[in-house]
Design brief:
With about 425 residues, the chain is mostly helical. The chain has a two-stranded antiparallel ribbon. Strands 3-4 form a two-stranded antiparallel ribbon. It starts with a helix and ends in a 10-residue tail after the last helix.
Length: about 425
């Protein structure tokens, strides 16, 4: 061990056997890999496989150990890519047998010592499937715009079987939908449809939710948004790259711009807050009848999320589209459509049922008023609606402060008419 010459010899052996291909070794960062590239190994012509001294035996169906090569119960030649891979994986040095080679000329692939034959078959199948496509590169679908995010996201959707629980396309049925417990009026207990997820939720919130669906650091065995569901969103432990890919996927699927800049909400005046409160508690639109409030007794029969999460979770534009025509987006929802009707004379939407006297002379859009109220609701305000017990869910209470600006109302009526008639959907790759 004290011989300095051994260091140089050891370094030469480390380089020869490609140790730096797996290990981080200072000074050998630029060392190239020693193995053959396997990207299109399955397309290699048979003449380029070096069967060495076993060429004739392979053609005759005789294995290196002298036994007959059997395929489908019959003796068969193994002079093909499949046979080459199987023997190489069984004994990486097999094609050196019978040859006189110097130490630096021998095959250097280490013996993996696969556990059983099935692992060798699996790796051989992978190599056989690693082929070069005959389709010219200019004919391949290789988008460079948002469609690229959709294409990348679909791989993860399929990898994690998201469609086993969720609907991501119009007409697509999830596995859960056909289970017996969801056939008798229990549709609201199903996981949410994700057809318009990119248009619905704030991407920053979505990333946090995908990372920790419980939205809690202490109680992780729960649904962070819909505690009333019979199934729980798993914690998949997505990698940072997978999280970003999924967020981009949903945003691109709904043609949403990135980065997302939250829309400034016009601050509610005191009279507007009272008017919106009246709509919230009216018999024609009893919002809190179905939505969670944080009251354990009430939430046992709830079928919709807590309004306290709206500000950090939802996008105002989608929310307005939803309350105008919810069944256009989700035909199975219990949320009623027709709560608002078009007032063409004043270019706005108004509440369909009778409104309190406080609405007399109010010229603004009623749907926009309700959305602004939802996004500016506070625990104190929710208490005024008659809510008992805790009034928040998860981290929403810490982020429920009223936000807004002194800007005048934006003229979005024409846009709202358009949005009320359409839904953003995720296309197939």
């Amino acid at each position: 061990m004290d011989n300095p010459a051994l260091k140089s010899k050891g370094e030469a052996l480390v380089r020869q056997y490609g140790c730096a291909g797996c290990h981080e070794i200072k000074g050998l960062e630029e060392q190239q890999r020693i193995g053959t590239e396997l990207t299109v190994e399955g397309s290699k012509p048979i003449e380029r496989f070096d069967f060495a001294l076993f060429t004739h035996k392979a053609e005759e169906g005789i294995l290196p150990d002298g036994r007959e090569s059997m395929r489908n119960g019959k003796k068969a030649s193994w002079y093909d890519a499949k046979g080459f891979f199987e023997q190489k994986l069984t004994n990486p040095a097999i094609y050196d047998v019978g040859k006189k080679k110097g130490p630096d000329e021998r095959l250097r692939m280490p013996n993996i010592y696969f556990r059983d034959r099935s692992e060798i078959d699996a790796v051989s199948t992978f190599l056989l499937g690693s082929v070069d496509s005959n389709v010219p590169a200019n004919l391949k679908y290789n988008p460079s715009d948002q469609r690229q995010f959709i294409q990348e996201g679909w791989w993860l959707v399929k990898k994690y079987n998201c469609m086993g629980c969720h609907n991501l396309q119009i007409g697509q049925r999830s596995v859960l939908m056909d289970l017996p417990q969801y056939q008798l009026g229990e549709q609201e207990k199903l996981p949410p449809r994700l057809v318009t997820e990119g248009a619905r939720v704030n991407p920053d919130w979505l990333l946090r939710f995908l990372k920790n669906p419980s939205l809690s650091d202490t109680d992780t065995n729960r649904n962070g948004v819909r505690q009333y569901l019979a199934v729980r969103m798993p914690t998949f432990d997505f990698s940072p790259n997978e999280l970003q890919t999924l967020v981009r996927f949903f945003n691109a699927g709904s043609a949403q711009p990135m980065p997302y800049i939250p829309e400034q909400q016009e601050a509610l005046e005191s009279q507007e807050r009272e008017m919106a409160r009246a709509l919230f508690t009216s018999q024609a639109a009893p919002c809190l009848k179905c939505h969670m409030t944080g009251d354990p007794t009430h939430d046992k029969t709830a079928t919709a999320p807590n309004f306290m999460m709206a500000r950090e979770r939802l996008k105002p534009q989608w929310t307005e589209r939803w309350i105008l025509n919810p069944r256009l987006i989700d035909p199975t929802t219990a949320m009623p459509s027709g709560l608002f009707k078009r007032d063409d004379a004043n270019n706005r939407f108004v509440f369909s049922a009778e409104t309190p006297a406080s609405f007399n002379g109010y010229k603004k859009d009623h749907a926009d008023l309700l959305v602004r109220y939802m996004f500016q609701i506070t625990p104190d305000e929710q208490a005024k609606l008659g809510v008992k017990g805790p009034s928040t869910s998860g981290a929403a209470a810490d982020k429920s402060k009223t936000t807004g600006s002194n800007e005048g109302p934006k003229k979005r009526s024409i846009e709202r008419m358009t949005l009320a008639k359409r839904a953003d959907v995720i296309p197939s790759p």
